[in-house]
Amino acid sequence: MQKLDGFAEVALFVDDLARSGAFYEQILGLKKIESSERGCVFRVAARQVLLLVTRRAARTPSRTPGGLVPSCAVAHRAGPGPGHIAFGLSPRALESWRRQLEGHGVEVLSYVAWPRGARSLYFRDPDGHLIELATPGIWYTRRG
Fold first, then answer.
1. Is the pTM of this model over 0.85?
2. What is the SS3 string spanning the chain?
3. What mean pLDDT is predicted for residues 56-71?
4. 1-74 has which CATH code?
5. Of 8, 87, 104, 125, whose CA is between 20 and 30 Å from 49?
6. Residue 62: what pLDDT?
C-alpha cells in the first residue's frame, strides 16, 4: 500500500467569513493565498493549507474548470457544531504564543502536558472551533 504524505488541506465551516478570516490572518498570522464568496485559503506550512468555508457553501457542490467538487457537508451534518484542528509548533514558541493570544483578548482555555512530552494550548476561534497549538510528542515520542 502506498503511504500518505500528510495533510494537504483541512477545512473548517464558518458563519462569518470576514470575521473568521481576520482571526486566522491577524491573530494566528497565517497568509491568505486565495479568497472568494465561498471561502478562503491560508498557507499553514509547506504544502499544507487551511480552508475556511462558509456553512452555506459547504452544503453546495462547487463547479471548477476541472470538474465538480462535491459538497463538504451533508444535510444531517451541516449544523453549527464546532470542529477541532491542531497546529504544530516548536516547544520554545509555546509561551510566546500564549502571550500573543492573550494580548489579542483570546482566552486560553487549557494547558496540557502530555505523557510523551508534548505540551498543548487550547482556545476557540470566533466560530467556536477548538484550536490547539501543540509541540511535538502528542502521538509519538520526539524520536519516533
1. no
2. CCCCCCCCEEEEEECCHHHHHHHHHHHCCCEEEEECCCEEEEEEECCEEEEEEEHHHHCCCEEECCEEECCCCCHHHCCCCCCEEEEECCHHHHHHHHHHHHHCCCCCCEEEECCCCCEEEEEECCCCCEEEEECCCCCCCCCC
3. 83
4. 3.30.720.120
5. 104
6. 84
